[in-house]
Write a structure and sequence with these properties.
It is built from six helices and seven strands, in the order H-H-H-E-E-H-E-E-E-E-H-E-H. 22% of the residues are buried.
């Protein structure tokens, strides 16, 4: 880690500031400061009977985050898309997170960054995914645009999306072993191919 930081040009004071900020952010991971009174998304979910699916809900740095169980993710996101009080009709991004080393369970999260073109508002919905059961329903039926980022998450993290109509690698070769964005994926050992060494291999 230190070698990487040095190569990036980070000084000792830069590292100290970054570490303090990181520690402060980690300390806020368990904040639960959203409720039906200050969050229309929270209220809509509770009124629809999904209150028990909410694991955490917080407002951090002026952005709202709702952490949910994965079992009803498609129903929850469909509700947030269709309810007139929320209208999250655009999925800006979907990505995976590996929490290995944070001493938190489950290990993975699938993160949905949503935007409402009607209310001009953003929200982040995070779904928990167990390491031993790394599968979650696809939301490509909610937003067609979800198909490609779900394939990337499958490729990079090994999280499967049930019901996806074309779940296969999108960045790595089909015969690649492992998932490079998992924190326990080994670093190094793969030769970088340039024109000179590819040519040398072909000649050999």
């Amino acid at each position: 880690m230190i070698d990487t930081d040095v190569r990036l040009g980070l000084s000792g004071s830069d590292l100290a500031i970054r570490n303090r900020t990181f520690q402060a952010d980690v300390a806020r991971l368990d904040d639960f400061n959203l409720n039906p009174d200050n969050s229309p998304e929270f209220r809509v979910m509770v009124e629809a009977g999904y209150g028990a699916e909410i694991v955490g809900a917080k407002r951090f740095r002026d952005e709202d985050f709702i952490l949910v169980r994965k079992e009803r993710i498609m129903d929850i996101l469909t509700l947030l898309r269709d309810n007139p009080d929320t209208r999250y009709d655009l999925v800006s991004d979907i990505f995976g997170v590996d929490l290995l080393g944070f001493e938190r369970e489950p290990r993975y999260e699938v993160v949905y960054s949503l935007y409402s073109l009607t209310h001009h508002k953003r929200i982040v919905v995070k779904a928990q995914v167990d390491e031993d059961d790394a599968i979650i329903d696809t939301v490509s039926g909610v937003w067609v645009a979800a198909e490609w980022p779900e394939r990337e998450i499958f490729d990079m993290f090994g999280i499967e999306f049930a019901g996806h109509n074309d779940l296969r690698r999108i960045l790595m070769p089909d015969d690649w072993v492992g998932h490079p964005l998992r924190k326990d994926f080994p670093l190094g050992g793969e030769e970088v191919e340039f024109s000179h060494n590819v040519r040398d291999k072909a000649v050999a």
